[in-house]
Amino acid sequence: MLKFHNSLSNKLEEFIPLEENKVKMYVCGPTVYDKAHLGHARCYITWDVLYRYLKFLGYNATYCRNVTDVDDKILKKADMQGVEPEVITKEFYDSFSASMKGLNCLKPDIEPRATKTIGEMIAMVKKLIEKGFAYESDGDVYFSVEKYKKYGQLSKQPLDDLMAGARVDTDEKKKSPLDFALWKKDEKHGYKSPWGLGRPGWHIECSAMSKKFLGDSIDIHAGGADLTFPHHENELAQSECANGCDFVKYWLHNGFVTINKEKMSKSLNNFLTIDDLLKKYDSNAIRFFILTNHYRMPVEFNDEALNSASAGAKRLINSAAGYEKTQNLDEESVNAFKDAMNDDLNTSKALAVLFSLADKIKKAKDTKDVQIFASTLITLGEVLGFDFSLSQKEISNDELKTLIEPLYKTFEISSSLEPKKALDEIISIRKAARDNKDWAKSDLIRDELDKAGILLKDSKEGTTWQVK
After folding, report:
1. How far apart, in Å, are the Cα atoms of 6 and each of 47, 189, 297, 343, 419?
2. Residues 82, 119 within the same domain
3. CA 413, 415, 418, 423: dihedral to nearest 10 degrees?
4. Contact 175, 159 (CB under 8 A)
5. For residues 159 and 53, which has the higher predicted lDDT (pLDDT)?
6. Long-range Cβ contact pairs of 408-414 (< 8 A, separation 24 or more)
7. DSSP labels, 289-341
8. 459 forms bridges with which residues in the sheet?
9. Does 164 lie in the same domain as 224?
10. Range of the domain at 311
11. Both 100 and 186 in a single domain?
């Protein structure tokens, strides 16, 4: 029996979808104004695993993850660079997509853009005004928080407490400091609306996109814990007031990523992009690191943990190297895996099942059972999003020499050196370049090896290579 910790009830609840065998799932996507970071990796790997597991269980799951491509930060960056907002959003949407592919995250079934859903946002704002939950003020439109008596139910902050703790708001357009913007006056970048040129508030974007593509009520709404308040609280309020029904049955939130016990943020200068991570670790290592922790708990990032995760992931992946994925599975292991995942996505216990299978493969070598164990490891590993094509390929000296032969001349390596020693020599040349801060030469060597099919991995212990 699948159970989730529902942030709304703050309890572990059995998962029963609104429609039998169908799951409608919405995840708050990126605001595309900068590169995706480790916090994004934690969030989207978590919900990628949930999506994969729902499909594994046989659910007809529809995964919708939006793209916020109209936002204050986007417009500010566009104005600073003297370009149209679309230039910024295209650059960073493409970057985000590449990062998700690098992490082996499946593409959502639906990936709506805020700028393509403006009409639906305006319609929802109009309905909120008509029903008395919102008001227009000099081109802006605000949601009247006091009109929704259940406000604060998701973040467990009673309305009276929020009002008492509200700071003095200098915006005289609002009736209450708690009221939030549904529509913002904007004569420079705005869209036509009944209230003049403007653009949507962040919260109404997700409500309108979820309604358009999944309907008034959905099964699962997921995202980072930092979105619980005010974003998800505001989504919940405006959606239920506009649609007149329950919005979300199960609210799920993943924990923060911390570095040196502090939440990762640009202001603290402890910001790690996914691109930077993927230069040092492959997707399996990053996934392993994230999945060893329960999704609701904070994750403390450090290189030692990533190196350990990399070793653990390689052990799993290489255990299945050379075997095929078939329909024949070890039912005992499958059931143990389901027991773990059904317990609010306990991925650390699920990983233990995979390691048990790796041990069984080793013990069952040269027996008919080995293929069943290997197939089970691949099948269950793929539910967690591991990429088994990244196994260390066995390669002969002759095959390796064919790959790197052009590099002997490029880097003036003696032709008498065997391929593995030649590679060591090239890596030594690159290390010297790095020590001398000759980053151009270091990057050139990495790129030339990459073209030859050799992937370099840097760590505190040094540089290793593997055939792609």
Report:
1. 15, 38, 14, 12, 56
2. yes
3. 20
4. no
5. 53
6. 410/448, 411/445
7. HHHTS-TTS-EEE-HHHHHHHHHHHHHHHHHTTT----S---HHHHHHHHHHH
8. 462
9. yes
10. 281-390
11. yes
Note whether residue 159 is domain-resident: yes
Return the residue matching tokens 């009673």.
Answer: 158
Is 25 part of a structural domain of the chain? yes
Same domain, 225 and 292: no
Q: Helix count (H) and strand count (E) of the chain?
A: 16, 15
* Residue 169 DSSP label: P
Q: Does any domain span residue 34?
A: yes
Element (DSSP H or E) covering residue 458: strand 454-459
If you search the block for the tokens 């590993």, which residue do you land on?
A: 381
Reported as a single tens digit per residue, the pLDDT across 35-92 is 999 999 999 999 999 999 999 999 999 999 999 999 999 999 999 999 999 999 999 9
Task: Enter the pTM of the model.
Answer: 0.84
How far apart, in whole angstroms, are the C-alpha atoms of residue 265 and residue 274? Answer: 14
Cβ-contact 294, 347 below 8 angstroms: yes
Determine the residue type at 75.
L
Say what percent of the chain tops pLDDT 70.
95
Same-domain check for residues 219 and 306: no
Q: In what order do the strands lie in the sheet with 299-301?
A: 262-263, 257-259, 299-301
Instruction: Identify the DSSP state of 145.
Output: G
User: How many Å apart are CA 339 and CA 350, to the nearest integer?
Assistant: 8
Q: Are residues 212 and 91 in the same domain?
A: yes
- Residues 458, 367 within the same domain: no
- State how beta strands 140-143 and 180-185 pair: antiparallel
What CA–CA distance (Å, rounded) separates 196 from 199?
10
Mean pLDDT over each residue of the chain, to the nearest integer: 92
Q: CA dihedral defined by 186, 91, 271, 302, rounded to 10 degrees?
A: 150
Could you give the 3-state DSSP secondary structure of residue 374? helix
- 240 or 396: which leads in pLDDT: 240
- Examine the domain organization and report whether 295 and 432 are in the same domain: no
Residue 70 DSSP class: S
Q: Which residues pair with 24 in a beta bridge?
A: 62
The torsion of the CA quartet 226, 230, 234, 237, rounded to 10 degrees, works out to 100
